[in-house]
Amino acid sequence: MLIALLGGDGIGPEVVAEARRVLDALNIDGLHYEEALVGGAAYKASGHPLPPETLDLAKRADAILFGAVGDPDCDALERHLRPEQAILGLRKELNLFANLRPAKLFPELADASALRPEVATQIDMVIVRELNGDVYFGEKGVRTTADGKREGYDIMSYNEDEVRRIARVGFETAMARGKKLCSVDKANVLETSQLWRDVVIEVSADYPEVALSHMYVDNAAMQLVRNPGQFDVMVTGNLFGDILSDQASMCAGSIGMLPSASLDAHQKGLYEPIHGSAPDIAGQGKANPLATILSAAMMLRYSLNLSGEADAIEAAVAKALAGGARSPDLGGTHSARDMGDAVLRKLN
Ligand code: NAD
């Protein structure tokens, strides 16, 4: 099994290094690693944020562990050369259409949530966001109207195959958890959403054990902060999922804690923390590596079918937190290396 390690920019390489130490400690037979440059680091070395050799490694690998991309030195570059294009390119080239973001609050971190602790501690959900379609990928531009005014437009669309495949990921994720799926749309206003809802209902016939509900996105945003405990798995489109998953993550504590997976149709995936390259703290040892360590656990569970090892990592993270490991974003003074050490001590 080949794992591509793409550290990227800023704190990316620092947090990926800690995840690698945790993976090494598990001594998993047949796992090997190759590293490559991506993002600003790749641009500086070779003139492109996603060079052919990096894309080739990503394609050959069974799974990809990704840090983050983004470098202030590259902010003035043309859009297609900016570091962030690397992650968009990987999603597109590898057909990673399903983004899974678990949002679960470790009880020890109840104070880190933007919500009251008694509400925050109820959160234990996964948001399944479609990643390859919707208004982000439709025709777009700025045109001039008949009366000479500028008008921006972005076309929103989903075809039934795109909805069906992400709905299946939603139902499968629910089957592996609490068997509750909430599909989020705006079917009262949008034709795209009405088709989305119709197709999700069609797919539900194959999953009679899953309790399916539907919610308009405005209500879902409200319910996420009012009563997040009601959700098990939420499935939604690219635009709504972008917003709701960030909202859910802040309800569940620090940005340094939250992992994610982006999967293709064959469980190959790219695993990354939800945070960016954090240039403000890069190189200072202040990054919290737990989101990346938890992303490595997701990688073992979803792409390598090693759920026992994934459970072991998640348990070690919980024990490290219970034992008082706190990086600066969690109100403590532990360095990235200290946090990695704390997890390693609890891993057995
Ligand atoms: P960011 O997530 O990098 O940082 C936001 C804030 O959170 C900063 O104060 C940072 O110090 C803190 N933070 C983030 N991760 C942390 C961690 N692991 N431990 C402790 N603190 C942490 O977001 P930003 O500042 O908006 O973006 C910085 C760069 O990252 C930009 O170039 C942006 O485009 C890029 N970005 C990349 C990705 C990605 O690679 N998938 C995602 C988001 C942003």
Model description:
The chain is of the alpha/beta class and 348 residues long. It has two domains: 1-99 and 256-348, Isopropylmalate Dehydrogenase; 114-130 and 158-251, Rossmann fold, CATH 3.40.50. Helix content is 39%, strand content 19%. The chain contains twelve helices and twelve strands. The strands form two sheets. Strands 2-1-3-12-11-4-5-10-8-9 form a ten-stranded mixed beta sheet, with helices on both faces. Strand 11 (259-263) and strand 12 form a beta hairpin. The relative contact order is 0.16. The mean pLDDT is 95. Nicotinamide-adenine-dinucleotide is lined by residues 11, 15, 68-70, 84, 87, 255-256, 272, 275-281, 287-288, 291, 329.
Question: Outline of this structure?
Answer:
Helices cover 39% and strands 19% of the residues. The protein is an alpha/beta fold and 348 residues long.
Helix content: 25-40%
Q: In which order are the strands of the major sheet placed?
A: 2-1-3-12-11-4-5-10-8-9
Strand composition percent? 15-25%
Number of strands: 12
Number of helices: 12
Name some characteristics of this structure:
Rossmann fold, binds nicotinamide-adenine-dinucleotide, 348 residues, alpha/beta, 12 helices, Isopropylmalate Dehydrogenase
Outline the secondary-structure elements.
Layout: E1 2-8, H1 12-25, E2 32-35, H2 40-46, H3 52-60, E3 63-68, H4 85-93, E4 98-104, H5 117-120, E5 124-130, E6 140-144, E7 150-154, H6 160-175, E8 180-185, H7 191-204, E9 211-216, H8 217-226, E10 233-236, H9 238-251, E11 259-263, E12 269-273, H10 290-302, H11 307-322, H12 336-346
Parallel strand pairs: 1-2, 1-3, 3-12, 5-10, 8-9, 8-10
Antiparallel strand pairs: 4-5, 4-11, 6-7, 11-12
Helix pairs in contact: 1-10, 1-12, 6-7, 8-9, 10-11, 11-12
This protein binds nicotinamide-adenine-dinucleotide.
The site of nicotinamide-adenine-dinucleotide (NAD) has 21 residues, from loops.
